[in-house]
Amino acid sequence: MGTAFRWNLASSWAGQLGDGIAVAAGPLLVASLTRNPTLIAAAAMVQHVPTLLLGLYAGAIADRVDRRRLVLAANLVRVAVLAVLVVTIATGHISIGLLLGVLFAVGVAELFADTGWRAVLPMIVPKADLGIGNARQMSAFLVANQMVGPAVGASLFALGQAVPFGVQGAALLLAAALFTKVRLPASAAGGAKPEQHIGRDITDGLRWIWHHAPIRTLTLVIFIFNITWGAPFGVLVYWAQERLGLGSVGFGLLTTASAVGGIVSVLLYDRLERIVPLARLMRICLSLEVVTHLALALTTIPWVAMAIMVVFGGYAFVWGSLSSAVRQRATPDEYQGRVGSVYWLGLIVGLLVGQFLGGQIASHFGAAAPFWFAFAGSGITLVLVWRQLAHIAHAEAD
């Protein structure tokens, strides 16, 4: 897929490793500073606030400026903020208030970096290869961010509270250095008009999505399926304890099982996309999600739940790669940032809404109830969009 893609992938691996280190080290640092549940929850929530407040704005910026420079600048800001964090920890001046501010600042910079980065891939990969391109990028997230990074982060935290954040900064600096090797076509300057008000750019992006029926429907599907996914998985640890009787080690194995399924999908994705029609593949993935919710609602056997989670990890990885490729193929280069930001905002908002609903449902109706809610909601949605998936799969023809 070309030299630019290889440099981009290498940069992604370095950045995802750094972010994965923070996945474990961040909560450990928060827990060392406060035992207040509200503040602990705030530390988790503050990382999503930039997307809610600035997600659409970041998408418009990504369509106005050179996306390569945007990604580099945002990552260097992240490195600078992490350097401040390391110094404050090392000198004993860290506080929960300061940490919340750091997390917010890092979240803002990460939002702009990721928005620009997602708009870069369609510029350096041919449309026909976007599926496998997304799959390889997602493999970096799966392995470096979800598997290797957290283990490294926890180990480094044991050496010293500042150590993992220093290593994270070094990994992001390496990611930025690797990304300087990526060469983009001339259209990288963006398609939005600098003389036009940024609000108008955002409105234009929303209007484009609204008038493009397949992408509009795909965005709604992503939003609804993240509500139904977020509901049970937001209380997964509670369900695992109450229904399966698992402790901390068992819960760790349960969550790792999905990563195993994802790794299998990394190896098989190219073949799947070549031999299975896109619409059929989309229907299979969404159908498996509906069935997964039903199966997890019914089971009380740990090894059965782990087997289901392997299946979940496999189809979720395929769906993520495939749905991103479908959106990128259909979206003109000058709208990639804005359309991608709406897509991502829908994902995050859906997830947060689902987690809230899941907590309420579980507290009133029991640990398995969120899975029943997810089964019903995703099943009804799938029935409603079943015929349209054939059109969505080939949205670039519109």
TrEMBL record:
Transmembrane segment boundaries:
39-58, 165-184, 217-240, 246-269, 281-298, 304-322, 342-361, 367-386
Q: What sequence ranges are listed for the domain Major facilitator superfamily (MFS) profile?
A: 1-393
Identify the Gene3D superfamilies for this entry. Answer: MFS general substrate transporter like domains (1.20.1250.20)
GO MF annotations, alphabetized: transmembrane transporter activity
GO annotations of cellular component type: plasma membrane
The residues the entry assigns to the signal sequence are: none
Q: Which domain of life is it from?
A: Bacteria
- Membrane topology designation: Multi-pass membrane protein
Keyword entries, A-Z: Cell membrane, Membrane, Transmembrane, Transmembrane helix, Transport
Q: Where in the cell is it found?
A: Cell membrane
Q: What is this protein called?
A: MFS transporter
- Native species of this protein? Knoellia koreensis
